[in-house]
Amino acid sequence: MAETSKRIQMKAVVFAGGVGTRMWPLSRVESPKQFEKMVDSKSTLQLTIDRLRPEFDWEDIYISTGIKYISLVKKQLPKIPTKNIVIPCIFNFFKCFRGARVAIIAKKSPDQPMAIIWSDHLMKKVSLFRNVLQAGGEYISQNQDKILFIGQKARFANQNLGWIQTGKKVSDFDGFKVYKFKTFHYRPNIQLARQFFHRKDYVWNPGYFIATPKFILERYKRFMPGMYQKLLKLQSSFNTSSYQKVLKKIYPTFERISFDDAILEKLEPNKAVVLSVDFGWSDIGNWQALKEALQKSKKGNVVKGKVFPWECEDSLIYNYTNQLVTTIDLNDIVVVNTDDVLLVCTKESMKNIKKVVGHFKTKEKYKKFT
Asked: Are 85 and 104 contacting, i.e. CB atoms less than 8 angstroms apart?
């Protein structure tokens, strides 16, 4: 395991605003998956913060979430300063909020490395991930004209994730190899995913990166000049009595475009590098991904709560009630039992969960279950 030489001062922005429909019925509009206890009686949001502490001071951790989830964040993370809980979702423009958050941080710390983190992921090698963040922060502090993407070594031919193609090695830094960045590939078909998996120059893209706020704002200035001017207005009003008024006025005028499309897809390759290792990362986007992350053997079951599986294999059975859930002779099945909904489906059928929830939203008698 690589060890970084010192602790670098940096910021972390943790995104916790999505609903997570594919993990229904546990994940609901009123309490999305990142706030639900899925592993070791903790939510993935709490586990995410555990991975950042104590290397990151509480003052340097920002939570980006929806207005209806403020109380959930405060309850689960009581030490996070209230001013660090950011509310981007008041107009359902969550994807374009990264620029606003960067602009706000840039007002006080334009040249300090900033890590972008997601709240619904799991990590097996926490110490290694911490070292990766520290090394990446140190690299950016010395190379402020760059953005550093953090890659995860692929474990299988995953077609549901983004991939990063790397180039030649740039340097050895704090015990890690840093490579040139070539390009992104988002959710390739299975044939391409298999090709990527067998090549050394392709890695999974967890969506983590480190850069200075100044660097990101300069990209907005170059690629999205109209939005850049609005970000400057938002930045100048921050920590003043007019901030909320300016936010409500400017935010709805932001173009509905994701950060990836606005900035990352247009990024100059010579301005980006990749640090990639196997730190046991998993994107908990659906029940199958959670099972893959927690499964200890290929045929093993993943269970939670009062569960008695009899002659079952390769199944996930989560019970959030006081009832006993007994399963018999099941193979490759997902069972999720909550106080008001019981879900039973095969692995192949999990892709239809989002469609079912979408159908429920159109039916008055089922809306309450979404």
From this structure: no
> What pLDDT is stored for residue 94 in this prediction?
41
370: DSSP letter: -
pLDDT number for residue 91: 39
DSSP type of residue 6: S
% of the chain at pLDDT higher than 70:
95
Q: How far apart are CA 88 and CA 73, in angstroms?
A: 14
Which two structure tokens, joined as six digits, stand for 286? 């659906």
Phi, psi of 203 (to 5 degrees): -135, 160
pLDDT the model gives residue 98: 64
Tell me, rounded to whole angstroms, the distance of Cα 275 from its chain centroid. 17
DSSP string, 70-127: HHHHHHH-TTS-GGGEE--GGGT-GGGHHHHHHHHHHHH-TTS-EEEEESSEEES-HH
Q: Is 219 helix (H, G, I), strand (E, B) or coil?
A: helix
- Answer whether 13's CB lies under 8 Å from 117's CB: yes
* pLDDT tens digits, one per residue of 139-194: 999 999 999 999 999 999 988 889 999 999 999 998 999 999 999 998 899 999 99
Does residue 277 contact residue 150 with C-beta atoms inside 8 Å? no
- What are phi and psi for residue 208, nearest 5 degrees? -95, 140
Alpha carbon distance 130, 124 (integer Å): 12
State pTM to two decimals: 0.86
Alpha-helical regions (H) of the chain: 44-52, 70-76, 97-108, 126-142, 190-197, 213-223, 225-237, 243-250, 259-262, 287-294, 353-361
Q: Which of 347, 283, 281, 270 is closest to 314 using CA atoms?
A: 347
